[in-house]
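pls design
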């Protein structure tokens, strides 16, 4: 099944995770190697959690996010390219935060709590160049409390989507962010790095924004779920285990406990289902982090519903803002 791409920009693609007071967002990238990372620096006292549903994951520091873990707070979240090699970038983030006096006190030192997850972009550019500690520090130094560039920056620099039929039929992914106001006065913000096996769909209309491109003369975008159900899985390169991932972070200024933040990460992860089709496949390493820091009061169900919307919009924005650098078509390139 093929459908024409959605040429109207979906509504509501606005706001930033930094609309949540105290949160900073920074990116660093290598445009020649087509890789990079994005870091969310949390305000002191932030509580973090993680929902890991993917089966092709590489992570760091997620054990500290378990509700029963001794460490109570989270200092930063890193979304990085470079596959598992990119986890080295978290060293630079930790060093930067240590210099700021952040972290868990232990034996006269401060040990920052940094959680990280990766996406696979080694096939996009120079695969022997991966985000490292220097790039991690650079992203921290570039972090700001306002909306910045999106699309093919940071962790989205080498991201791709729609790999069912191989790289030659894929499209450009990227990084996106959004925010949603809560009825009680609080806010939920989201960041997404989209490197999915499946396609990205407008959650309001179901229309495809990006995915595997159909062959001429029909063109259009192939519905990956329909293709799998009716024709089976294509095994043409670029769709193997570990080569696909959607990473998300949601943040709120509603006061939540660690178990409540864990539940928020689970609820927010459903926003990924609404937009990435199919999601949580055997070849995707999908991970969603949730962070809470603030004094606002609101029902967890209200916060969770807003987080689903914010993450879905951030995912859509990631592909709408993406630049294919002349190597792969992006949403903006489709006629």
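designed seq:
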């Amino acid at each position: 099944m093929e459908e024409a791409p959605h040429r109207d920009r979906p509504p509501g693609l606005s706001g930033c995770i930094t609309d949540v007071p105290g949160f900073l967002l920074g990116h660093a990238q290598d445009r020649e190697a087509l890789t990079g990372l994005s870091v969310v620096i949390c305000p002191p006292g932030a509580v973090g959690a993680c929902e890991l549903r993917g089966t092709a994951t590489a992570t760091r520091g997620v054990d500290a996010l378990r509700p029963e873990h001794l460490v109570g707070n989270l200092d930063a979240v890193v979304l990085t390219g470079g596959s598992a090699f990119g986890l080295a970038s978290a060293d630079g983030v930790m060093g930067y935060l240590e210099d700021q006096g952040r972290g868990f006190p232990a034996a006269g030192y401060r040990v920052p709590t940094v959680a990280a997850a990766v996406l696979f972009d080694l096939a996009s550019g120079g695969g022997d160049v991966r985000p490292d500690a220097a790039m991690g520090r650079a992203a921290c130094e570039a972090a700001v409390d306002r909306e910045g560039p999106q699309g093919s920056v940071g962790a989205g620099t080498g991201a791709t989507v729609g790999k069912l039929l191989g790289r030659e039929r894929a499209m450009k992914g990227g990084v996106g962010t959004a925010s949603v106001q809560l009825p009680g006065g609080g806010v939920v913000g989201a960041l997404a790095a989209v490197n999915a096996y499946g396609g990205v769909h407008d959650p309001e209309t179901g229309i495809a924004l990006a995915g595997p491109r159909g062959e001429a003369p029909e063109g259009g975008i192939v519905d990956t779920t329909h293709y799998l159900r009716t024709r089976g899985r294509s095994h043409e390169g670029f769709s193997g285990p570990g080569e696909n991932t959607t990473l998300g972070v949601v943040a709120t200024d509603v006061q939540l406990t660690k178990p409540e933040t864990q539940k928020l990460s689970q609820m927010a992860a459903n926003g990924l289902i609404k937009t990435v089709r199919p999601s949580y496949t055997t070849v995707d390493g999908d991970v969603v982090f949730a962070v809470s820091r603030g004094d606002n009061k609101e029902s967890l169900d209200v916060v969770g519903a807003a987080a689903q919307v914010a993450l879905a919009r951030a995912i859509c924005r990631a592909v709408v803002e993406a630049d294919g650098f002349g190597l792969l078509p992006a949403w903006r390139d489709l006629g």
